[in-house]
Amino acid sequence: MKEVDAVIRLRLASSVALIDQISHYIIGAGGKRIRPLLVLLFSNALGFRGAERFEMAATVEFIHTATLLHDDVVDESRLRRGLETANALFGNAASVLVGDFVYSRAFQMMVSVNRMRVLEVLADATNVIAEGEVLQLMNMHDPDLAVADYLRVIRFKTAKLFEASARLGAVLAEASPQVEEACADYGRSLGTAFQLIDDVLDYEGSTVELGKNVGDDLREGKPTLPLLLAMERGSASERSLIRHAIEQGEVARLPEIVEIVKATGAIGATREAARTEAVIAGQCLDLLPPSAYREALLELCTRSVERSA
To answer: Which of 85, 139, 267, 296 has the greatest count of CB atoms below 10 A from its CB?
Structure first.
C-alpha cells in the first residue's frame, strides 16, 4: 500500500494549482482503501508481482475518488471522513471539474499498462457506476421502492468497483476465465455486504466514528434497506412516519425513526443480509491456492460486516 500511495502522489500532480489542492485534499483525507487492497491481494494470491498492480490499485482508487467528489455535490454532503467535503470547502463547480480530472487521469493510467482487457474491465465498471448513480437519483424520495430495485443500485453504484478491483488482480495474473469470474463474484458480494453495513451505520453509528453525519441517507431521501424493512414490519403509524420522512427528506424526527428501525428488527435483518453476502464472497475463494493473501481476503469478509465505521 505504500507503493500505491507513492503512485497516487505521483499521478495526482498537476500544474493547475486548484486541481493539486482539491485532489490532494480528498486523497489525503484517508479512507479504507479497500478497492486498491483487493487489486493487490488478488494479484499476490494468484502469483503476480509486477509493478502494474500498484498502478492499477491507484487507478481504482482514483475512480472511487472521482465518484466521491461528484456524489458529495449531488447529495449536498458537508462532511466525509470527519472533514469538510471538497464541495463544502471549494464549491460545487470546482469539485465536479476536479472529479473529471481525476477520472480522466485514471483512464490515462489504464492505458499505461497496455492491456486491452484492463481497459474493458474498468471502462465497463465506470459506465455501470454512472448508471447506478442515475438509478439512485431516480429512486430518491420514493418510499415504495422495491427491495430488488434498491439492491440493483447497490450492485451498480458500489459493488461494481469492488468487482472490477478483484477482477483486475486476476487479469494481471492472467488467470483462467473461471478463476477470474470467481474473483469478480467475490468482489461483487463483498461490495454489496459493505454497502449494506454502510446503510445500517447511518442509523446505528455515531457521527464521530463514521466521519459523516448520522441520518444523511434520510436527509437525502434515500430509501435504504433498514427503512424499507422497517416499513414492512412496522405499524401503520410507523410506516406513515417513515414514508413522510423519505418523501420530504426530513430528519427532525430522526430519533423516533431510529427507534422504529431498531425495534422492528430492520437493523438485524440488514446485518444478516450483509453476512450472507460475506459468506458467499468467502466461498468464491475456494478456487484460489492457499496463501496468506487468501486468508487476508477471508478476514476482509468478516471485518467488512462486523465494523462500526
So the answer is: 85
Hunting for cell 475463494 — which residue is that? 285
pLDDT tens column, 20-48: 888 888 777 777 899 999 999 999 999 99
C-alpha cell at 27: 486523497
Contact between 190 and 35 (Cβ < 8 Å): no
Distance, in Å, from the CA atom of 37 to the CA atom of 30, rounded to the nearest integer, reads: 14
Q: Select the more confidently predicted residue: 261 or 209.
A: 261
29 phi/psi in degrees, rounded to 5: -70, -10
**pLDDT value for 238:** 96
Report the alpha-carbon distance of residue 75 to residue 220 in Å, rounded: 6
SS3 labels along the chain: CHHHHHHHHHHHCCCCHHHHHHHHHHHHCCCCCHHHHHHHHHHHHCCCCCCHHHHHHHHHHHHHHHHHHHHHHHHCCCEECCEECHHHHHCHHHHHHHHHHHHHHHHHHHHHCCCHHHHHHHHHHHHHHHHHHHHHHHHCCCCCCCHHHHHHHHHHHHHHHHHHHHHHHHHHCCCCHHHHHHHHHHHHHHHHHHHHHHHHHHHHCCHHHHCCCCCHHHHCCCCCHHHHHHHHHCCHHHHHHHHHHHHHCCCCCHHHHHHHHHHCCHHHHHHHHHHHHHHHHHHHHHHCCCCHHHHHHHHHHHHHHHCCC
- For residue 205, the model assigns a pLDDT of 67
**pLDDT reading at 86 higher than 60:** yes
Q: Report the pLDDT averaged over residues 163-175.
A: 98
